Amino acid sequence: MNTGSGGDPAACAARPPGPAAAAGAIHPAFLPPEALELDLSDPQQRDFGDYELRERLGAGGMGVVYRAWQRSLDREVAIKLLSSAPWTQDEAAARFRREARSAARLQHPNIVAIHGFGSHDGIEYYAMALVRGPSLARRLAVDGPMAPRQAARLGRTVAEALHYAHRLGVLHLDLKPGNVLIGENGEPQVADFGLARHVEGGRAVDPDEVSGTPSYMAPEQLDPGPDGIGVATDIYGLGAILYELLTGEPPFHAPTPARTLALLRHGRLRRPRRYRPDLPLDLEAICMRCLARAPAERYPDAHALAEDLGRFLEGREVSVRPLNAVQRLGRWIRREPKLGGAILAAVLALVVGLARRWCSGSGRRRARPPRAGRPGAARRRGLASGRRGPPCRRPAPAGR
Fold first, then answer.
1. Consecutive sets of 10 residues in the chain, 400 residues long: mean pLDDT of each?
2. Catalytic pick from 47, 174, 282, 308?
3. Which UniProt keyword terms apply here (predicted)?
């Protein structure tokens, strides 16, 4: 469905003023985010083509979402209006349409369905199913971290939905608690494929200009390496959600986006059990594998992650076991080969130096002649060699 008009100036002039007119009739350019914050008490601003905007539900990196009534089909929907910042008009339109087309291909009970998209008064939009429930971000803000089994069940459901999307060639690339909605039945639904990319062979076909939300971005979204952007990027995003479900905190967070990105690039991730020592080791190991810095060290696909979470829930052995100290050291050295090599070389040199010093001191002690006149020295040497002197005799009692 592609309702609404295109960019005919005459047609726009014939219409009553809508959101674009209320914002200063910016046409055919797209509106800045603040211009999409409409006064819904004004009937003219509520009117949006086939839709009547009724309530602001939230905002994201690419637009503002409203609850709306679709007149032609007599139903309530959620409608997302495009914000242009921080891209140019053409880039914003292309990204927005790609999001709608990608998500419209996905028909899954745990993915928010897309009903249609189009343009009205120079504003790009798409309509989707209205999920009557809070986002996972809202649930965390109110209730705090989840019980381990509850978090594992939710993670498994989202992983299965992601695997479905990946099999149809769609990456999400902006997974975070705010993009997982909780329906009335308590089931999660993945929304907002705003950074979606087509995937082939596990890698994004068009990975240029990939961005994301700093606290939930994978390292390769910041610094693409030889592995590039791919299925493993969404695995990291789901791992970041699982981490916050268990700890109440995202993997990396700082007062500003720039400092958060610096932590992502150089920081050390705290293990979930540092926050909650009672967390099961197997669940922590699953979470940490999702968040491995190198894409090749994560789960190969979302199906493998869902299976491991299922094993945990069933009390069976998971495929990834908790790392011991030696294994963690080995992984760190693989991530930081130069620094790790330098530290190992320094430790080895120290050990060799101490060993030589000990051997040299031991040789000198063996070659040193015994010192004469030292009280008790001869007796101690005799005892050490196993020789004993004549037995001591007690003096006989007097008078015998």
1. 36 38 36 60 82 87 86 93 61 70 86 88 86 93 97 98 93 92 93 68 57 88 81 97 97 93 92 96 97 95 98 94 62 64 81 78 63 55 54 57
2. 174
3. ATP-binding, Kinase, Membrane, Nucleotide-binding, Transferase, Transmembrane, Transmembrane helix
Q: In whole angstroms, give the CA distance from residue 127 to residue 66.
A: 10
CATH top-level class of 14-128: alpha beta
Q: Where are the domains of the chain?
A: 14-128, 136-319
Residue ranges of alpha helices (H) inside 179-324 are 219-222, 231-247, 257-266, 272-275, 281-290, 302-314
254: which residues sit within 8 A by CB, 6+ positions away? 260, 262, 263
Instruction: Note if 174 is an active site residue.
Output: yes
Judge whether 207 and 225 are in contact, CB under 8 Å.
Answer: no
Looking at the DSSP bridge assignments, the partners of residue 114 are: 128
Tokens representing 263 are 């932590």
State in Å, rounded, how far the first CA of the chain is from the last one.
130
DSSP string, 35-57: GG---TTSHHHHEETTEEEEEEE
Please give the Cα distance from 291 to 288 (Å, whole number). 5
Q: How many angstroms separate the CA atoms of 390 and 178, rounded? A: 91
Please answer whether residues 204 and 210 qualify as being in contact, where contact means their C-beta atoms are separated by less than 8 angstroms.
yes
Q: Measured between alpha carbons, how far is 161 from 388 in angstroms, rounded to an integer?
A: 84
β-bridge partners, 60: 63
Q: Which residues are annotated as part of the binding site for ATP?
A: 80
